[in-house]
Amino acid sequence: xxxxxxxxxxxxxxxxxxxxxxxxxxxxxxxxxxxxxxxxxxxxxxxxxxxxxxxxxxxxxxxxxxxxxxxxxxxxxxxxxxxxxxxxxxxxxxxxxxxxxxxxxxxxxxxxxxxxxx
Length: 118
What we know:
82% helix; single chain
């Protein structure tokens, strides 16, 4: 739990810096102040963001699974088609779930491409 809280604080700090349009000199000053290489700050920031996207996307999928008591988009589609689950709002949730699955694939792709920071 503490580790998740630390990550949330780190993410908030990073997003605050990035939302201000972090310029190269800001990154350089941060790097110098913390005595951490710029590349490491950037790598860890991107890795933290990607990790957060995966967690958030997975949490959204879990909500849908729990709401409709299903384990897959295919099962939800079958229950909607058979009339066991009302079409509205289930169809919207199904489409959202399918889009979340696509997002997870993109995140996994980038997780493999990006350097892992320690």
